[in-house]
Amino acid sequence: MEKQLHLNLLASRPPMAGGFQSGSKMKMGPGRKRDFTPLLWSQYFETIEDVEVENENGKDIFRLYCSGSSGPVLLLLHGGGHSALSWAVFTAVISSRINCRVVAMDLRAHGDTKVKNPEDLSADTMAKDVGNVVEALYGENPPQIMMIGHSMGGAIAVHTASANLVPSLLGLCVIDVVEGTAMDALNSMQNFLRSRPKTFKSLENAIEWSVKSGQIRNIESARVSMGGQVKKCEESASNPSVSNSIGEGIIEEEEEEEGAEESNKKRMKEDDQEVKKESFYTWRVELSKTEKYWDGWFRGLSALFLSCSVPKLLLLAGVDRLDKDLTIGQMQGKFQMQVLPQCGHAVHEDAPEKVADALATFMVRHKFTEFKEGFLC
Question: Among residues 176, 271, 325, 350, which one is catalytic?
Fold first, then answer.
């Protein structure tokens, strides 16, 4: 029996039983109307900063979202196709637990970062980006830094740490990325990417899809983070991709016969109004075009992770994700591991409190920081 591939390294695969087929109807329950309106970054971070980095091609500008004024820096690296906004809810939670500063970074070609060569998403280039941003931020004497990466960002964090590009590195936390499962999952990645809707009629529509498809199971996180995954486009209403955008086929559990008919009529009217505006949303990053870099992100990752001399934490959404090297390393006590059940691939979005608790406990145990006064762990 073919091994089930639980891990999607680029964008979170829907965890619905039987899988989610593009264009199929999805019933959700219990049926009640939920709020899919976007939330602002400023509800979770204190400031935005654009950092300029000089290179041979000119200037690259990296978007950072920051919070906190004292304690070690948590440098957060998002997964492929996502943005720094995927860390928004987690940032609010971790900031309430420990003394720390947060710097969440939009990686190359992602979010609102602007680089001269957005096509180069090699592990080496992105790791150098991280090192360059840290240097641009703090100069020759950076504060102590705990680097935390999810999925692709976890791989980039490992490459950055192993190349000693962050000299003040305290520790390393990798979330839901394991070499063995990653390499297996790459074979089915293009099929998954093709199954996703190419456009959405609105940002609210994209948020709704992300929650109901299972890409992000935490509606609050979806409301703030999906704006970093999609962008608004202006095109002719006659474009067939607009009329085929997602929004058709997601129905609520309580919509039965007459109710469903009335709801469908209302939805059709709303859809017509959206199309007349001649605007729609599409993915910011065409992940299918990054395929040539996938192997380089993940091959050899376990050995690189184990070779990093700093204390290490691996957070996983499933126990079957350890490969041979990591299994041996874990038995030898080379890193700490914690499994967070009932989460999708976007662990830090689905369960920000659990991830924050695990990370806070890890950092306090290693005396990197202290719990905030009044916080009961």
Answer: 176
* Both structure tokens of 101: 């500063």
Whole-angstrom distance, CA of residue 101 vs CA of residue 96:
11
Query: Does residue 159 have an active-site annotation?
Result: no
Is 195 annotated in the active site? Answer: no
The rounded distance, in Å, linking the Cα atoms of 212 and 342 is 16
Digit-coded pLDDT (tens) for 241-262: 443 455 543 433 333 334 444 5
Question: Which residue out of 12, 83, 86, 151 is catalytically annotated?
Answer: 151
Q: Which of 12, 345, 348, 350 is catalytic?
A: 345
Rounded CA separation 87/240 (Å): 34
Is the pTM higher than 0.85?
A: no
Model confidence pLDDT, tens digit, residues 204-230? 999 999 999 999 999 999 999 999 999
Handedness of CA 215, 241, 29, 16 (dihedral sign): negative
Sheet-wide strand order for 336-339 = 47-55, 58-67, 101-105, 73-77, 145-150, 169-175, 312-316, 336-339
- Two tokens, residue 365: 């145990």
Burial grade of 139 (CB within 10 A; 0-12, 13-18, 19 or more): exposed
Burial class (CB in 10 A: 0-12, 13-18, 19+), 329: buried
Q: Tokens 């009217």: give the residue.
A: 269
Q: Does the active-site annotation cover 129?
A: no
